[in-house]
Design a protein that fits this description.
Structural class of chain A: alpha+beta
Oligomer: homodimer
CATH class of chain A: Alpha Beta
Helix content of chain A: 40-55%
Order of helices and strands of chain A: HEEHEEHHHH
Number of strands of chain A: 4
Largest interface: A-B, 25 and 26 residues
Largest sheet of chain A: 4 strands, antiparallel
CATH topology of chain A: Endonuclease I-creI
Strand order of the largest sheet of chain A: 1-2-4-3
Shape of chain A: globular
Number of domains of chain A: 1
CATH superfamily of chain A: Homing endonucleases
Number of helices of chain A: 6
CATH architecture of chain A: Roll
Radius of gyration of chain A: 17 Å
Chain lengths: 161, 161
């Protein structure tokens, strides 16, 4: 495998800080027993004319997929905890503006590691709340409170075992 | 003066590719004898909460000024041929997506160097046309044709000396 230079990593970290979006979202899933999923993603958006640049970045990050939208834009998306955390750890030494995003992401990942429990999910959902404040997300509907209400309604939380 | 690491330069080049805008514009100036000025600029836009990040980049690039707009955004702008070219040459080894922008910028700068002549200005204005195609600018009014028409109308071009 070709060696990746530190300047290449630093370049991609700068590009992520300028163009990328790191997201953690609490997503409603009607087919899930706990009603919600925590979704991790990194997205880059560029005009489709720059698709080759996104493909170059994908060759470096080795995760995700590229999709042309029908409005002249192309999205490069990395979805899933494992992939997102691997990419963030790889770029972490050089990320500057989104450094806090990376730290909260690693906390969410650490909480969710190992065997799944409802307590872990509620704790992680609270970090997702904090995360979305970093992204200034205003139209957010699913907060940790919504999750807790759902779990309480279905007698899944608080747990007494 | 503190040494600037190659990874720092690479990071800033990535941030410029992701967030920055390199522009060359033909600007109408009623107080100018030739009616127009070629304006070079580099602009970064971030939410005002990230002003400190733009200040950090300004300390590296050593040119330009930072201004808070009243819509929650902050602009870091570098204006003027000399400053823009210095910054682009400094970052050039690491710029990827906007590499073509840098090449055209250096051509415009080379044409305009030395003693000012109308021929040089017309030639540079043609490169500015090419430049604005790179930026997909659609609402552009001032093209090299507009400049040539203005100069012809004022009997300044074509030159017969």
């Amino acid at each position: 495998m070709a060696k990746i230079f530190s300047t290449t990593k630093a370049y991609v970290a700068g590009f992520l800080d300028g163009d990328g979006c790191i997201m953690f979202q609490l997503v409603r899933r009607k087919d899930y027993i706990y009603g919600f999923q925590i979704r991790a993603s990194i997205v880059f958006y560029q005009k489709t004319m720059h698709r080759d640049h996104l493909e170059w970045i994908k060759r470096i990050l080795k995760h995700g997929y590229i999709r042309d939208r029908n409005d002249g834009m192309t999205e490069y998306t990395i979805v899933g905890f494992k992939s997102v955390i691997e990419v963030l750890k790889f770029l972490q030494p050089y990320i500057k503006m989104k450094r806090e995003h990376v730290e909260v992401a690693l906390k969410i990942s650490a909480i969710m590691s190992g065997k799944f429990t409802i307590e872990k999910m509620v704790k992680a959902a609270r970090f997702v709340d904090q995360y979305q404040q970093l992204n200034y997300s205003k139209k957010r509907v699913n907060t940790s409170k919504v999750l807790i209400d759902f779990l309480a309604e279905h007698k899944l939380y608080p747990c007494n075992d």
